[in-house]
Amino acid sequence: MKDKILVVGGAGYIGSHMVKRLLEENYAVVVLDNLSTGHRRLVTGGELVVGQLGDEKLLDRVFRDHPIAAVMHFAASSLVGESVQWPLKYYQNNIAETVSLLEAMIRHKVVRFIFSSTAAVYGEPEEIPITEAHPCKPTNPYGVTKRCVERLLSDCDTAHGMKSICLRYFNASGADASGCIGELHDPESHLIPLVLKSALTRKPIKIFGTDYATPDGTCLRDYVHVTDLANAHLLAMNALLNGSPSAVYNLGNSVGYSVRQVIELATQVTGKDIPVIETDRRSGDPAVLVADANKIKKSLGWQPKYEALETIIETAWNWHRKQSHG
Fold it and tell me: Rounded mean pLDDT of 92-106?
């Protein structure tokens, strides 16, 4: 058995896929999750500790009882609209509770941290594709809190020698190829699962805005498979364990697909007609968000396995169809 890794938020969508990959690579895993948005049944192994990330006594017990080599953080609140409506929730959960985690790590001399960040730290894009050198001007509390944690980690490196890698990913999508775990949000806000649920229920999917300066008038987004995200986190963790310095990387496929293209491909994959309602733009939706992920490919050798959007949708469809059958 290899090192023991603490995965906070490991019962959620991306965290559960990370846990599965770690177990496949023979790492020992401890999952800390309050199950507010995570699901016990998505945790495929390791030890699950149910509790709050900001619980100092609980954190001390976890670090005292387990020889943790590195921490992976997937425990943030992540709904942009909700963050605008309830900013204090986001500052509390995403910043204050992460501070408690970092303090516990410092007390117990655990100095390797892999952070699930987001393209939301960039705000409105000034250039496409977006590189890591793009200015960070987040436009909502969610993006602000993620950027704040990135700064916290940089300061902890300076003050305490804590090495971290922040992974800024674009649109996490798809499900594990086995179909045993996948996206299970309530409410759901991501396009692909919403489209697939429309295929299952015949309830129309809304297209927010059809007059953008894009080839078909709808927004373009960069979709990256959740297993490819997990593999990138694995590479980042191994780099830190082998003495690499702190770093920031984008994660994406560097290809933009429009809302209409997603719906068309989902129609092909599912073999079902998907009803559509066209409506007005949502405030704050950029026309195009596409990543430049060359840095992590060159530095860590990351290579996405599920690049084709059709493949991403197929894995998601396999998962959602199973859920609809109970």
Answer: 98
Number of domains in the chain: 2
Would you tell me how many other CB atoms lie within 10 Å of the CB of residue 111? 18
**177-204 tens-digit pLDDT:** 999 999 988 778 889 999 999 999 989 9
CA distances from 239 to 60, 75, 141, 161, 235 (A): 26, 22, 30, 15, 6
What is the pTM for the complete model shown? 0.96
- The verdict on 284 and 311 lying in the same domain is yes
In a domain, 184, yes or no: no
Bridge-based pairing state of the strands 220-221 and 257-258: antiparallel
Phi (first) and psi of residue 142, to 5 degrees? -60, -55
CB-neighbour burial class of residue 267 (10 A; exposed 0-12, middle 13-18, buried 19+): middle
Q: Which domain holds residue 265?
A: 191-221+254-324
CATH number of the structural domain spanning residue 276: 3.90.25.10
Q: Judge if 246 and 264 occupy the same domain.
A: no
Q: From the CB of residue 201, how many other CB atoms can be counted at a distance below 10 Å?
A: 10
- Residues marked active site are found at 142
Q: What share of the chain is helix, strand, coil (3-state, %, to 5)?
A: 40, 20, 40
Q: What confidence tens digit (pLDDT) does each residue in 129-172 have? A: 999 999 999 999 999 999 999 999 999 999 999 999 999 999 99
Quote the pLDDT of residue 1: 66
Boundary-marking domain end, from 199, 234, 251: 251
43 in Cβ contact with 27 (< 8 Å): no
Residue 326 pLDDT > 70, yes or no?
Answer: no
The one-letter amino acid code at 151 reads R
